[in-house]
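Translate sequence into structure tokens.
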Amino acid sequence: MATHQAAGIVQGFGQRAQWVVAALVLAGSVGALVRSSWGLVISAKVLTVPGLIALAAYNKLRLTPALASGDPVARRTLRRTIAAEFGLATVILVLTATLTATPPPMN
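Result follows.
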């Protein structure tokens, strides 16, 4: 995926996300997200997944070409970011498992 394609995807996501946030605020659901265990866990997961995607995109779009061109720093940086990806994936799996055992908030 080219950088301009990734930028278009991110811009499109941002435009859609603002409407989702507005709808949540208008519906009063934001309070349930921060006042319940389930809401906190799902919020953490929703905030962690884009981080994982961003790291993966950085690796694919920046570090992989740099490594292929012989950049000496790229190998070490790629190793670190892959470790961070693994860590974030682990966190997402733990949060997902926690959601299965956490009851959603009741109105």
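Note: The mean pLDDT is 80.
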